[in-house]
Every structure is written in C-alpha cells, then in structure tokens.
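Troubleshooting: if your tokenizer reports a length mismatch, compare against these two reference records.
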Amino acid sequence: EKWEVSLNSLALSIDESERALVVRLFSEKSAKQILVKDLRSRDPKTGEILLNLSENSKTKQNSSSMGSSCGSGIHVSRHQHNDHEEVPRSITRKGNYGYAVEWGDDATIIYSFYSLAKSAEASV
C-alpha cells in the first residue's frame, strides 16, 4: 500500500529508551510514528543507505582495541566501537529543509525532510 505524506508536516523526536529517532509522518487521512535506528548510515539528502558506512559500522562493532606493526613498518590500529557515537543527542528543526541531528560523537548532520521520510519507508 502506497502511503503519501506531506513533508512539511514531518516531525522528529528522540526516543531515549530506544536510543533512536522517532519520525512522525502525516498524510491527509492518517498519521504514523516510526522508530528509525539506522539514520546515521543513510545519506542526509536522499535517505539512501550508504553501504560503506553500514559495513564500516559493523566492522567497528566487531573489532577490539589493539595495535600491531606490519613488517613493512606500517602501524595498524583498531578501535573499539563506542555505542554512544550513534545515539542522537539533540535535534533542531532547520526551517523548511529538515532537522539537524547532533550525535553522541559530537557530529552534527542536517537531514532533509525527504531523507527522513525515506528512512521511515514513506512515499514522498
């Protein structure tokens, strides 16, 4: 079933217990509330999943803190993934464009309304 939404009515909030974002979408006939946990691995303009970031995130989660030296003199370091990096800390509406999300690692990314709706699997 195709569900058309109005981007200007989209609302974003933080669900502290789930450590994720909640996208609220409104159409002419109804409203939906969808929990979005993978926003950090999506393109902030289009909402498409960025494969490199998703794979990198999985790699980080599975790696441990360690360092080693290769015979070529190159030092290789792996750092343990910090769960707080991908937890949204604050959000700010940015006019008619979207929302700025400040993440646990101090990165601030502005997501378009379109990308937020797409991450919530809505038709726009």
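Reference record two:
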Amino acid sequence: VDETSVGPQQQTTSTTATQSTMGNRTGRAHSVAGKTWKSFDERLRDLIKFKKKFGHCNVPRKFVEDQSLGSWCNNVRFSYKQIKEGKQPHNTLSTEDIRRLDNIGFQWRVRQFKTPRS
C-alpha cells in the first residue's frame, strides 16, 4: 500500500483540544503545552511505513521505535468503538479517516492473548 492509495485528507470544521490526540486537520504537526502532535496524515504515513516494515498495522501500544504511534493506534480504535456504540468519541475520527485506515488494512479490533501458565 502506498501513501497515494489512501486518498486526500478532508478538512473538518470542528477543532477541539482532544483532537490533538488524533492529529489536527491542517496536515501539519502542531504544538500544545510544549508537545508536538502530528497530523492525521503524518500518523497515517507513519502507520504505512510500519506496515511496509512489519507486514501489518497492529502497532503495539508500547512500540519501542515510536511509542506515540502505538498510543495513537489505540486511541483511534477506542474512538471507532465509541462511534460504533453511538457514543460521542473523545477524539475526532471522520468517515474519511475510517475509510483511509480501512484501505491500508487497519484492524479495528486487536485481541490480546495471554500465555497459559504451566
């Protein structure tokens, strides 16, 4: 999957402080309280790079190379779940964002398996 196949990012009109977790809609990183937040497009590009390297989009929450990418994926999944349950998500996630993530093979549910004890 290359970055051009995910389509252009659509601009949304709402901007909230919580949106910074998902990325802003300007296509550029921004800073809040001394931290730099990547845009949705930048995070999507990071996810595509991860998929090219590892063959899947299941970024571990504590991914050593980019821990914030794992956190972002977790937040995306949580927002998607809230939308599916008819709740207001904490972070903005548009239908276009969902489509773009679907196009690269993003898994909305990731099972955590515990190893059996001996």
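Descriptive notes for reference record two:
- The CA atoms of residues 28 and 39 lie 5 Å apart.
- The longest strand covers residues 30-32.
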